[in-house]
Design a protein that fits this description.
Blueprint lengths: L1 H26 L4 H11 L13 H22 L2 H32 L4 H11 L4 H11 L5 H29 L6 H31 L6 H22 L3 H13 L4 H25 L4 H5 L1 H25 L4 H10 L6 H12 L4 H35 L2 H16 L5 H37 L5 H24 L4 H9 L4 H27 L4 H17 L1 H18 L1 H15 L9 E9 L3 E3 H4 L2 H4 L2 E6 L5 E2 L7 E3 L3 E6 L1 H13 L2 E6 L3 E2 H7 L12 E6 L11 H4 L1 H5 L1 E8 L2 E4 L12 E6 L1 H9 L9
Helix pairs in contact: 1-2, 2-11, 3-10, 3-11, 4-5, 4-7, 4-13, 5-7, 5-15, 6-7, 6-16, 7-8, 7-14, 7-15, 8-10, 8-18, 8-23, 9-10, 9-11, 13-14, 13-16, 14-16, 15-16, 18-19, 18-20, 18-21, 19-21, 19-22, 19-23, 20-27, 21-22
């Protein structure tokens, strides 16, 4: 009870003092964060004229909780989609300023004779600007919509992400005996792989569970679940070797992609504000005012270097990324402070015992001074830009601006290659990380524990090997299965593309084969390497081509993609419902009519159907004499002069038309690519007879239907109902031209296209009612 009294007294002291001082700071139009730090100084044991908290250790625990909730809230504001939105300019700007300031901080610390670890942490802390302070200043000055402000805010997103990885690297370096060597690289690699696995598994599981219980969730339950998940991720993160802050950030980033993100953020905000305030107060309590006098010289030097360095390097990064001289100057004048993330890095260094206490004091003083001057610099940015433009000789200014114009016009890398490399790297990194974890779990944990209780070692090893390789098979299928649309487009675009494309596929097969070899050698028995490799390649090829493995893998991919885009998909659905009253895949899929001229007299659809490689479906053929073929089969003949209707995504259709132009067919007529909704609507005005008009219907999948838990191929939709399946919607995710191996589940919506004959047939067997047409 006595301890509880102290806890209540300490909390009362902190909150009352914080309330009074922050109101005063608000009145003076100063950042509230500075107010919290001042409160910490005033009630700390180093200041003798005001009451002091009884239990400093309790305050430190609350401060740790404050870091957890601050990082959890940061994760909730973070989205993986933001990385794609910020653009290359923000990435270049953030990369330039962070790398330059890290080197500057390290060099500055070395010049002052500080230890290596102090120099490393100083460089890391000086490289981070303040998202909170800059955003608040922009809001007050109505600058958020300015072009330079968008570059700054995008750069801050990249800095936050880089800060998370910095925590991983600094933690690893701090607990390692040296800064180099294979051991350190191994530790970092394992930690990064663990990070990928935690995020992947979290994204796959958490949104699914939340959606399953959404009807049971109210505000109270959602808050408890969210905070419980946050704390669980903190425990998992520390067990793996990460910090508490990183675990909280990961929890927030996983929940940020769900449709519950905004509600969670709103519920957590008061808790974050409370414990965040305690954290910043605790920062102030660690400050010893007399040390300001003792370290006044390094504080002044680091403050000046931070302001000048951040300004010059961010200005340079913005200009290198293609911004004008004026915008680059205003970017530089915005990013002149040490941010609140530096306090978290400082707390990390202190908790690990690798950073001296005096540096914590110095960085807080530097942060206070730079944050205080930030609004002044932002206000003066416009005038400074005008002044610099007037000082630079006109010839040089024209040369600089011509660089930015040229930078905006030209792209060094083909956009298709950018898309392919991004997809290839993400897919391979995630799948290889999961394969590695499956291997390590099976070989180092499952097998040894089973062998403790079972005498028949050979049988156990064989069964374990089969189980581990089977668990790897979906991820091997993902990285090794047949070529994607973008792959095929690049293949035909230029002969030079073929070599790197072949190498990329070969690398995927090679890495997968090494994983299988590792299981064989580590679990079963060591065979000659060439024999192991041949056996592994055969298994990899089998997994890549197996329809059974592919069907299971596609379901796994669809769930992951739907969960990853959960928030965006449901937002789009609400927008469509509010504007059109219904959600329709007709808005997602496109159609094109073209007349093909073959060099041969006749070919079949099967010969013509390289469309399969491009995710295109041929749904109708109009003969030269006016006859329509509405049920398209592999053996259907293509006559010279036939007009063919194909559907697919806009990108896939354009890639397919490019293929036709380069091969056996010449496009001599095209109505252009249009949405399927537009195509169906314009049939009336083009004089198409009612019995030949294409119609699109939605078929909800239930457990009672023959479609349930069967691949599309086995349902024989074209033969039974005289139509084609062109899409499936699952959890609001539209899947266009799904693979024949795709397994249908309850709740899916099948989108089928055909004529009135198809509609009559599926209504006859009561698959749909009139409302689904």
């Amino acid at each position: 009870m006595h301890g509880l009294d102290h806890l209540i007294i300490d909390l009362t002291l902190i909150l009352v003092a914080a309330g009074i001082v922050t109101v005063l700071f608000r009145k003076l139009r100063q950042p509230v964060v500075l107010g919290y730090i001042v409160v910490g100084i005033l009630i700390s044991p180093n200041f003798k004229y005001l009451p002091t908290p009884v239990s400093i250790s309790d305050i430190n625990v609350w401060a740790t909780i404050g870091i957890v909730f601050l990082m959890f809230a940061l994760g909730l504001e973070f989205s993986f989609h933001k990385i794609a939105k910020v653009g290359g300019s923000a990435v270049i700007t953030a990369g330039t300023v962070m790398s330059a300031m890290m080197l500057t901080g390290f060099a500055l610390g070395s010049a002052m004779g500080w230890s290596v670890m102090n120099c490393v942490f100083l460089g890391g802390m000086l490289s981070m600007s303040s998202t909170m302070i800059i955003l608040k200043s922009y809001d007050e000055m109505n600058l958020k919509s300015e072009k330079f402000a968008q570059v700054v805010l995008g750069s801050l997103v990249i800095e936050d992400i880089a800060g998370i990885f910095m925590m991983i690297v600094l933690t690893t370096i701090s607990v390692s005996s040296s800064f180099s060597g294979m051991e350190l690289a191994k530790e970092l690699t394992v930690l990064l792989l663990a990070l990928v696995v935690i995020l992947s598994v979290g994204i796959y599981i958490v949104p699914t569970l939340l959606n399953k219980i959404k009807n049971l969730i109210n505000q109270e339950i959602l808050l408890i679940i969210s905070l419980g998940f946050c704390m669980l991720m903190v425990i998992i993160s520390t067990a793996v070797g990460f910090s508490e802050a990183l675990g909280a950030f990961l929890a927030g980033s996983i929940l940020a992609g769900t449709s519950f993100a905004e509600r969670i953020e709103e519920l957590v905000q008061p808790i974050k504000d409370l414990f965040g305030a305690i954290f910043f107060v605790s920062v102030g309590m660690m400050i010893n005012p007399p040390l300001l006098i003792e370290y006044i010289v390094p504080i002044i030097i680091i403050t000046v270097v931070t302001i000048v360095g951040q300004m010059i390097f961010s200005m340079s990064g913005a200009f290198l990324s293609g911004q004008t001289v004026s915008d680059s100057v205003r970017v530089g004048f915005s990013m002149v402070q040490v941010g609140e993330f530096s306090f978290i890095l400082a707390a990390l260094g202190s908790s690990l015992g690798v950073m001296d206490d005096f540096l914590y004091q110095i960085i807080v003083f530097v942060s206070v001074f730079t944050i205080f001057f930030t609004p002044v610099f932002i206000k003066k940015g416009a005038a400074a830009a005008v002044k610099i433009n007037s000082v630079i000789p006109e010839k040089w200014l024209n040369l600089l601006n011509s660089y930015t114009e040229e930078k905006g016009k030209n792209s060094i890398i083909d956009s298709d290659w950018k898309t392919y490399l991004k997809l290839y790297l993400i897919k391979n990194i995630v799948c290889i990380a999961l394969i590695f974890v499956i291997y390590m779990t099976g070989v180092n944990y499952v097998l040894p524990n089973i062998l403790k209780y079972v005498n028949d070692g050979a049988a156990v090893r064989g069964i374990t090997a089969v189980a581990v390789i089977a668990a790897m098979s979906p991820f091997i299928n993902i990285i090794c299965r047949k070529k994607s649309v973008i792959y095929n487009k690049l293949w035909m675009k230029n002969f030079i593309n073929k070599v790197p494309l072949i190498i990329s596929r070969a690398m995927s097969v090679f890495v997968s084969s090494l994983a299988v070899m590792g299981v064989i050698r580590g679990v079963v028995i060591a065979l000659p390497i060439w024999l192991e490799f041949i056996f592994a390649v055969v298994l990899v090829v089998f997994f890549a081509k197996s329809d059974f493995v592919k069907g299971k893998t596609l379901n796994l991919e669809v769930r992951f993609t739907a969960n990853f885009n959960d928030k965006i998909l449901k937002m789009k659905r609400r927008e469509r419902l509010s504007s059109t009253g219904h959600h329709h895949i007709l808005e997602e899929i496109y159609a094109v009519d073209f007349q093909a001229k073959s060099r041969d007299s006749m070919r079949t659809v099967n010969d013509f159907n390289a469309a399969k490689a491009f995710g295109i479906t041929i749904v109708q053929i109009q003969r030269a004499g006016g006859e329509y073929v509405n049920v398209i089969k592999a053996g259907t003949r293509i006559h010279e002069g036939d007009i063919i209707t194909a559907v697919g995504s806009d990108y896939r259709i354009n890639a397919y038309l490019m293929m036709l132009e380069q091969n056996d067919y010449e496009i001599i007529k095209s109505t252009g690519v249009e949405t399927l909704a537009e195509h169906i609507y314009t049939q009336i005005f083009n004089g198409v007879e009612p019995e030949n008009r294409l119609v699109c219907v939605e078929i909800p999948v239930t457990k009672k239907m023959s479609f349930y838990k069967k691949p599309i191929r086995d349902n024989r939709f074209r033969e039974k109902y005289k139509g084609s399946i062109i899409g499936v919607e699952r959890n609001h995710l539209p899947i266009l031209n799904p693979s024949p191996s795709f397994i249908l589940s309850e709740g899916d919506i099948i989108w089928a296209i055909g004529t009135q004959i198809m509609v009559d047939e599926i209504m006859r067997v009561k698959l749909i009612t009139e409302e689904h047409i």
